[in-house]
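Margin note: ligand = copper (II) ion.
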Amino acid sequence: MRFDLTSFITLALLAVPALSAPAPQRPGKPGKPGKPDQNACTNPQERKEWRQLSIPQRVDFLNAVRCLHQIPATRNNEYPGTGSDYEAFTVQHKIQTPWVHYTGLFLPWHRLFLREFERSLQEKCGYQGALPYWDYTIDSGSGKNFTIESPVFHPEHGFGGNGEFDKNVHDILAAQGTPDFWGGGCVKTGPFKDMTFTVPQERYFNESTAPRCLKRNFFLAFTEWTTQDKEDAVYEQTNFEDMEFMLEGGHIPGQWAALHTGGHFIVGGLMPQGAYTTAGDVWTSSLEPLFYLHHANIDRVWNQWQIQNNSEHLWDIGLKTSPRADNVFGPNEDFNFVDAPVTHSTPVDLGAFGGARNQVAVGQLLDTRGGASPEGQKGVLCYKYSQPPKPARSS
Ligand SMILES: [Cu+2]
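Resulting structure:
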């Protein structure tokens, strides 16, 4: 199927495209080589692919997410619409969005964010497992149809299905010549069908806090972005900047296609200007429960790149603390970006989530198994990823 991607992008995940954006800047320094500290964490919890969990384990995870959504917000509750501790995560994501997307902090910040989410499920909702991931390459490629075949969308022990058909959305998109859609409305199946959110959409906090549903608009065509080829292309990169670009996707016309953008779009699809599915609003996409499985997969692929070839890239970092294209999230002057290289000593924090474990430096997040950086920064993580249920790579 052929279509013009850049015209789509004006509609969806990134509503303010800089189509004449300059070439990306890649001045960041690669990290020094170092060795993981094998003694730092002796029993890392294993994050498994969704279909590697037993059915009861899947249900446990889904119940834990629902539990977090029922706990009144203990953090960020001074922001209107922070209806639950689950939503407190999205408020934090929204507050930090411009600094942690299309910057060198995208991967480390989301790594810390996911770990705190996982910890909340464990500490507040009694969840025993690790955060699962969704390897959508298994569900992508010719002849595959994730909307029917993937256990991720199972109506009872998965995340439920597509949004209801919204004829208004369909007709607007059809008039724009986009491929066919059959969702766009509220999800009416699965464990999240009655979930509502009150965090306002997009970047502001003074907009509507009227409860809204989980919305999806499945888009099979974008699974060409979530194939094994796209994942393998990440592993072929030899420096952090190129790897990051290949994994996150660029804010550059013609360079959208990447696992990260793909994972958002295959679920969130495209919507008319001003309308969003849950996964399609970059500011609040973490309201979509699948966000956490999608980003765990992004984190897994980053980690796989880090540790391949005897951990040759474990300590690599780069890019800058400002976005690689101008005005990605609105006028740059709104955000007071600091235009500095991201290094091991660049701070990473989760704002109101507070505590020493959420106020760290990049070098403390690079080894998921908690190893100390070459500069002696103590690692704060202790997890690993399973080999996903597909043929193993040889590297
Ligand atoms: Cu994000």
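Residues 5-385 form a domain with the di-copper center containing domain from catechol oxidase fold (CATH 1.10.1280.10).
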